[in-house]
Amino acid sequence: MQLKDVSGLIASAACCLISAEVIANESINTESDWLDDWQIDSALMLYSEVDRVSALEAVFSFKKDFKDEHIFSGKLVIDSLTGASANGAVSQPNVQTFTRPSGNAQYTVKANETPLDDTFKDTRVQINGQWTSPFSTDITTSFGGQLSKEYDYLSLSVNGSISWDTNFNNTSYTLGGSYAYDEIEPEGGIPIALTKHYSDPAFFASQALFDQAYSSTIATTSSDKQTFDLLFGVTQVWTKRLITLVNVGISKVDGYITDPFKIVSRVQSDGYTLDNINESRPDSRNKQSYFMQSKYHFDWAIFDVSYRYSTDDWEINSHTLESRIHIPSKLTSYWQPHIRIYQQSAAEFYAPFILSQNETPNYVSADYRIGDLNAITLGLKYGDQTQAGNPYSIRLEYYYQTSEDSGHARPGVLQQQNLYPSVSAIVVQYNYRF
C-alpha cells in the first residue's frame, strides 16, 4: 500500500496542525542561544475511516534564519497506516476467497460485502531540506530535496524555485520545478497486467501447483517511475485587507503507475464472477492544474477561499472549492469553521467490472479512487492560550465521500450489489505551542 496515495486522501480531509515554536534570544551569544535560533514545529493527526483505513501522522519541522534572509528549513514526517483497503473486485451474493499480495496466504470476504484486504500495514518515513536565499534585492531562490521510504516504496526528489518581487513588493512572480524518482518493490512482486489473479489453492491438486501458477503471473520484483512538475504563480497584494494568489501547474509521470495490489472482476452474463485479473494502467500521465486563492480581512474575521481545477489525459477532471473563516471571539481565543467540496470525473479506463464475453481492454482499473467521486469535508477548530501564554487548539473534521454510478449496465446478481459504497472518516487534531 503506497502511503503517498493515502496522504493525498488525508490532506483532502484536513490539514495537520499542532505546532510549537522556540524563539531565539539573540542578546546573549552562547551555544544554547544558537540552538534557540531554530524555530521548531510539530504536528500530529489521527485519520480514521469507518471499517477501513486508519492513519497516524507525526510531523516535525524546523527552520533557522542565518541572517540576511538566508534560511534553512527541514521536515521529518512519520506515517503509520493500518486497516482495510478495497482490492477492486466486485461484491457477490456468495463468499469469495482472495490471495494476499505475497501469494502465501488467502482471505475470505462475506457475501454481499465489498472485498477488502484487512491485514495490510505500513510505515513511511520522510525527510526533506530546503535552502532559501536572496539572489538580489528583488529576487529570491530556493533549492531542496526529499527522501521518502516505506516498506515497499522509495521516493527521491529535488526541487528549485525563483521568485521576483516588484511593484513595491505588492506583486510577486514565482517559477518552480521538481523531479522525483520513485521505486516500488511490492511484496510478491510486480504482477503482469491483465493476467489471471489466482485466488484459491483449493482449485489445484497441490499447493505446489498453485504456487507455480501464481508465480507465472509475476513479471519482476520491482519497477519505477519518474515525475516532472513545473509551476508558475502570481501573488498580488491589492489593499491592506485583500491578497490573492494564482498558480498554474503541469505534471508529467512516466513509468509504472499501475497499482500492483488492485484487481478487476470478469463477470458472466448472470453477474457472477468468472475470475479476477490484475489491473492495467497507462505508463504515462500528463496533468494540468489551476489554483486561485483569496484572503480578505474583515473587521470581525479573516475569510479564506480557494478553488482548484485539475485535468489530465486519463480524462480525470476535478474541482475543489475550499473555505476557512478565522473568527476571533475573545482577547486570545478564536473559532475557525472549514468546508471543502470536491468533485471528480472517472478515468477513461475505469470500470467496476468487465464482462467475460467481451474483449479485455488494454487498460482497465476498478480502483474507486479514479472513478466518479463527490466528497465533502466539514470541520471546526477552536483555539486559545494557556495562562502562560502558550496557544492551543482542537480541531474536529468529518469527511464523507460517495462514488457515483459510472453507467455500466449491471448483469444478473450485480443489480442487487452495492458497487459504489461510500467512505466516511473522522479527523481529530490537538494543537499546542510550547
Q: Which characteristics define this entry?
A:
16-stranded antiparallel beta barrel, 434 residues, Porin, three-stranded mixed sheet
Provide an overview of this structure.
- This protein has helices at 3-13, 31-36, 207-215; strands at 39-49, 54-65, 71-86, 96-99, 106-109, 116-134, 139-149, 153-166, 171-184, 190-191, 218-220, 223-237, 242-255, 263-267, 273-278, 284-297, 302-312, 317-328, 334-344, 354-355, 373-385, 391-403, 423-432.
- With 434 residues, it is mainly beta.
- It has a single domain (3-432), classed as Porin (Beta Barrel).
- A 16-stranded antiparallel beta barrel has the order 1-2-3-6-7-8-9-12-13-16-17-18-19-21-22-23. A 3-stranded mixed β-sheet has the order 15-14-20, with no helix packed on it.
Helix content: under 10%
CATH architecture call: Beta Barrel
Shape: globular
Under CATH, the topology can be stated as Porin
Radius of gyration: 25 Å
Helical stretch tally: 3
Q: Sheet with the most strands?
A: 16 strands, antiparallel, barrel
CATH class: Mainly Beta
Structural class: mainly beta
Low-confidence stretches: 6-32
Integer tally of domains = 1
**How many runs of DSSP E, i.e. beta strands?**
23
- Strand-residue fraction? over 45%
For the termini, the CA-CA separation is 35 Å
Within the largest sheet, what's the order of strands?
A: 1-2-3-6-7-8-9-12-13-16-17-18-19-21-22-23
Quaternary organisation of the protein chains: single chain
Q: Spell out the helices and strands N to C.
A: HHEEEEEEEEEEHEEEEEEEEEEEEE
Mean pLDDT: 89
